[in-house]
Amino acid sequence: MSLSWMAWTWPTAIFFIVIFMLLASMAVWEYARPGGHPRVGILRFETTRGDRLFVSLLGSAFITLAWLGLIGSSLWWALALSVVYAVGVFRYV
Amino acid sequence: MTKTWNNRAWFMVLPVLLLVAFSAVIPLMTVVNYSVQDTFGNNVFFWAGTEWYQDVLSSDRFWNAMGRNLAFSAIILAIEIPLGIFIALNMPRKGWGVPICLVLMALPLLIPWNVVGTIWQVFGRIDIGLLGRTLAAMGIDYNYVNDPFDAWVTVIVMDVWHWTSLVVLLSYAGLVSIPDAYYQAARIDGASRWAIFRYIQLPKMNRVLLIAVLLRFMDSFMIYTEPFVVTGGGPGNTTTFLSIDLVKLAIGEFNLGEAAAMSIIYFLIILLLSWVFYTVMTNAGSEK
Fold it and tell me: The ABC transmembrane type-1 domain covers which part of the protein (chain B) (predicted)?
């Protein structure tokens, strides 16, 4: 089966592999410690690990877009900022 | 009692996962792949990196369409929500009038989007349309084809005509679920009509109104068919909303890379707003 219609590139393939690995590691984490570790953080409502991953990924997407729109096309600092943001979300949200 | 925990239950969601993968995830992955490349057809692609994203984010065209879309959503919410509540409050709660009102309210919701667009396109025409000819006979200079203000009024009135019923039905469902004891207590206290609405009906309708706001906002933010059929996005670009602009870019101009980048940005905005609304709704429910 040819997948040429999907127009794959290495950077986008790596991007999706990373997303898939994040989801797989969340599944493993859930298997090891079931329940999703719900807690009320600085947003003042209950979030689980899955919620925190979603907020991290969505926020990182907007950080990247803001970087592209306001600063430039080199995204390494945006990536670093996104990692810091994700750590913050998992720690405090 | 110990809770049974079996992670093999996750296999039960496998069919849904496969369905979503084929209908949403794989197409979305393809759009992401397109958004970083350029193509002239024949499955030949050239790497473009983040160029399309920068083009979209720095284009006035995108931000203008976004502004129009947000303005449209804000206007229709400001009209449809209060109007829907007002109609629901005045609908009968018992007797033969109930089924008649409910059927009348449900009718606009049953009409397909493109048919609604065609109805209003003909209705507003100044040569053969009932609305257009009536306004012309009254001396009102109305022409939705040439005048941006008239085009906006037509598109907004069309949306209000089509979708206020949804708010009415949701509000009505919220109203009839309020136990009679609340009204009896209000009568004993001598509460005014306004006080009953403000302190009993409105708080009790809170949940359904949030659902109404969510549905109407998301739907109006993604609106395509009705304004496309009536105005085609014109005159000029004055009623070109994000989805119309996206289709123009992808199919009209065959600019697939830029259209894909715009789709991803549009998708992320929708995702963010959906999450915000969902979070507000679920937390509003948990407080009760």
Answer: 66-277
Domain that holds residue A87: 4-92
pLDDT attached to residue B239: 94
Q: Each residue of B262-275: pLDDT tens digit?
A: 999 999 998 998 89
How many domains are contained in chain A? 1
Q: Is A5 at the interface with chain B, CB within 8 A? A: yes
A65 close to B (CB below 8 A): yes
Which among A7, A45, A61 has the least Cβ separation from residue B30? Answer: A7
Q: Where are the domains of chain B?
A: 27-58+255-288, 61-241
The residues near B241 (Cβ < 8 Å, ≥ 6 apart) are B65, B68, B69, B72, B223, B224, B227, B233
- Asked whether A6 and B29 are in contact (CB, 8 A), the reply is yes
Which residue is closest to A54 within chain B, CA to CA? Answer: B275
A22/chain B closest Cα distance in angstroms: 16
pLDDT per residue as tens digits for the range B78-124: 999 999 999 999 999 889 999 999 999 999 999 999 999 999 999 99
